[in-house]
Amino acid sequence: SSAVRVGNTLYVSGITGNTPQNRGDAKAQTAEVLARTGRTLQAAGYSWSDVVDTTVFMADMTKFGDMNEVYRPTFGRSFPARATVGLPPVGGDTLVEMMFVAVK
Length: 104
Known about the structure:
By secondary structure, the protein is an alpha+beta fold. The protein is about 30% helix and about 35% strand. The model has no long low-confidence stretch (mean pLDDT about 95).
């Protein structure tokens, strides 16, 4: 499942953003992850302001700044808790994968 709702909490599974067009581009992959997640949140009746926790998996931690540059504006001034973990590539050309928890 891309997301599971339990009570008023929505758990959004790990979403990647790699496409043939953004191979090797952490900014573009982050933007795609956020676009896909935004659609998932909206379909479930949630918004970015409902997100309370994010886990970010990165294949290359030297690209953290690139990811963060795209990630931060999504939340304005209300940032969720976040953990960022450096891991070997999740698969293929994936540089960024994110999981989210949203609460209404």
